[in-house]
Amino acid sequence: MREIKVEWFGHSCFRIRKDGYAIVFDPYEDDNVPGLKLEILTANEVFTSHEHGDHNAREKVKLVKAYGETPFQVTHLESFHDDCQGKKRGTNCITILESEGLRIAHLGDIGCMPTEEQKRALSHLDAVFAPAGGFYTMEPDQIRVLLEELSPKMIIPMHYRSERFGYDVIGTLDAFLHKEDPVVTYESNELMIRPDMVRQIAVLTCPVKTA
């Protein structure tokens, strides 16, 4: 079936499932992201966008053997965590997953505009996980310029602060969202990516127990 299941576990941590295969993105350490405590997740692979404790807690993922090959074609794009060629915060890896024509991307802690070649690789996305809180990443107005250019079907905000969790220095969704946005709020941390999706900004509900 042409669909990909998405689960959000707070901050930038997602699990992607298709055909019994699971990939976790950016698990975070205990006592790192205020208000959040990540359970042990089970997956076949784990990808981390960079080596900071709120993104690289591989020990929080129990890796299990897959019964069959991965259904995903994986592309990694090397970028920067800042706007000064990595001198301040280092590098950042953008990851694109593609399966049966469905394309999704995790931008990690992107801190600067991708190159034109990278933008072409990020075109025709069905869904993108985008940092929305700024400060450690591109600011909300900058990331919106990028997303408007990429024009994905679905934008799933991540790496922002709410009343329950998040770093004090990063922003809430208020600065990221526009009045005219087609925002859909899900009362769950899960959704399905399908070819017939309606264009939207999908705000998922974080289910993680507070630390």
From TrEMBL:
<dbReference type="InterPro" id="IPR036866">
    <property type="entry name" value="RibonucZ/Hydroxyglut_hydro"/>
</dbReference>
<dbReference type="Pfam" id="PF13483">
    <property type="entry name" value="Lactamase_B_3"/>
</dbReference>
<keyword id="KW-0378">Hydrolase</keyword>
<protein>
    <submittedName>
        <fullName>Zn-dependent hydrolase</fullName>
    </submittedName>
</protein>
<dbReference type="GO" id="GO:0016787">
    <property type="term" value="F:hydrolase activity"/>
</dbReference>
